[in-house]
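Hi Q.,

Before the meeting this afternoon, I wanted you to have the N,N,N-trimethyl-histidine prediction in hand. No need to reply - just skim if you have a minute. The sequence and ligand are here:
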Amino acid sequence: MPTQSFRAANAIPNPLVAEPIVTESGNGVRRVERRTVDRGVEFRLVESAPDRAVRSTDNRQSRHVAEFAADVRASLTIPGQRELPSKYLYDELGSALFEAICVLPEYGVTRADARLLQRYANEIVNRLPSPIQVAELGSGSGKKTRWILEALAKRQRTYYYPIEISASALAACEKEMGQIDLVSVVGYEKTYLDGLRAVATRRDSQDHLLVLFLGSTIGNFDREAGNAFLREVRKQLRPGDALLLGTDLVKDVDTQLLAYDDPAGVTSAFDLNILARINRELGGNFDLYQFKHEARWNAQERRIEMHLRSLREKTVTIREAQLTITLRAGETIWTESSHKYHSDDVFEMAQGAGFTCTQQWIDQEWPFAQNLLVAE
Ligand code: AVJ
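Predicted structure with the ligand bound:
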């Protein structure tokens, strides 16, 4: 009997064992096809792998740990105010928690961003040169990008390159956007500028580029670093290329504080997860119950700051960072900044970086601006 059931299972044609036919289709997409034919029925397995086939090798994993450990060590030992780099908030759990933040009634940023894109997608697209390809910095799941891609795909086949350090967010984005007619998606699991460099060097000489930097992610940068970042983006562009930049605008302080300290505690969980991640990936022993999430409005810098306050004096060890620190009772770790803008700020930022802000669309319900910056 066991022999027979073994035979029956074995008799199912399995394309996985067939010889792979590999084709490179340009734009970094590698197509692997395996085919078997059984009693006239063809079984086919097709995988499309953008040039990230090497993205999770052991090598890369250990490099990631070393870099994470070095960053944690450097930022937690800054004299005066300890910090952690906000990009480490976004592991798989952090990205999922951020998606939850985006649907909080108190956090209007994402809905305002999406409303503007939905309402003005055609108007925005009509201002762009052709042919044009699209790169997105920090795509997240890419939901709101759909409006722009659909508007563009009405006039041309559109290549869309999401650039994202979160593998899970990138996978979700590729799946979702890959379903739009006449849109081809090639994801880059890279940092913003590395990804943009890869996209920019790969394109043909007649192709223009639209860079999307949505959701007010620029707000994570200090003002000076934000300006420097825009200049770096500009360096990868040609005159006439465009940057669509989302910026959350200054609004009343209570509304802003509530958006970063919601009563259901989702933002608190998002913030605390950075400590949990250090425990998981770097062998840390933070006791999350001994920390309290805090949102502050820094009026001088016009930014919300997220902090984690240690409720008591506590010694923490992080094995992979070879680090032991003692936090005082009441001391905070600064985990993120979200700068807020006046609508005029953006025109200045654009000028300083070699762009002209040719148009701005502002949401009336939740002050937020979509800005079209054209490379000079
Ligand atoms: C993704 C950086 C735009 O600053 O509003 C939301 C991140 N942090 N709630 C923001 C965030 C806490 C968000 N950005």
